[in-house]
Write a structure and sequence with these properties.
The chain has helices spanning 10-13, 62-74, and strands at residues 26-28, 33-36, 41-46, 49-50, 58-59. By secondary structure, the protein is α+β, with helices and mostly antiparallel strands. The radius of gyration is 12 Å and the shape is globular.
């Protein structure tokens, strides 16, 4: 049994900011996460709800950071707010 992915409400994306540095984020809908490239931190999106808790954020490796930044550029992903 697989869980269906839920996308975030577009109005919510317009106001979401990183709780740590208050900066904008990149939403990767296919990976169900929001990403802060400045701090190299990712926040999970669970059932369409962003988990914006600093303690639950995942710090990514440099290789993962480069992959995400390249993917965002390739897909022309916009940042929040």
């Amino acid at each position: 049994m697989s869980a269906a992915k839920s996308s975030l409400n577009p109005h919510l994306l317009e106001i979401l900011a990183c709780p740590k540095d208050k900066g904008n984020l990149i939403y990767f809908e296919d990976e169900e996460m929001l990403y802060n490239p400045r701090l190299q931190m990712r926040y999970e999106v669970r059932q369409g709800i962003p988990v914006m808790l600093i303690d639950e954020a995942i710090v990514v490796t440099q290789v993962e950071h480069e992959r995400l930044v390249a993917k965002a550029a390739q897909l022309n992903l916009k940042t929040t707010f």
